[in-house]
Amino acid sequence: MKKQAILFWIIIGLAAFGVVNSLFGNGQMNWSRLLIPVVLLAIVVWLYKFPPRKYRARHPKVKPSARTMAKLAAEQRQSSGQKRKHYPFQVIEGNKGKNDEDMPKYH
């Protein structure tokens, strides 16, 4: 678990303990003290389920053109048929020759 998640759950647990302790600490339940946290919790849940319009994710529906779809289809056909890209480079062997003693024993 990440440190932030552990810290978050510790704070939530302490907050819950504080709410329960403040409500039942005197031996009697005080309903007026419970009203504000319940209203705040209800507002947070309401805003989470139904966010304002300016905070909602907007995904415009754009239909790609026929030209774009043709390009995508051509790229898919080309990439599926050719698995490896060929580069115009090649290794040129040197004139010195190879010496087995200089080669490392372990690679």
Automatic annotation (TrEMBL):
Residues 59-107 are annotated as: Disordered. InterPro entries: SA1362/YqhP-like (IPR048110). The chain crosses the membrane at residues 7-25, 31-48. The keyword Transmembrane applies. Keywords: Membrane, Transmembrane, Transmembrane helix. It comes from the Bacteria. Residues 95-107 have a biased composition (Basic and acidic residues). NCBIfam families: SA1362_fam. This is DUF2207 domain-containing protein. It comes from Paenibacillus lentus. The lineage of its organism: Bacteria, Bacillati, Bacillota, Bacilli, Bacillales.
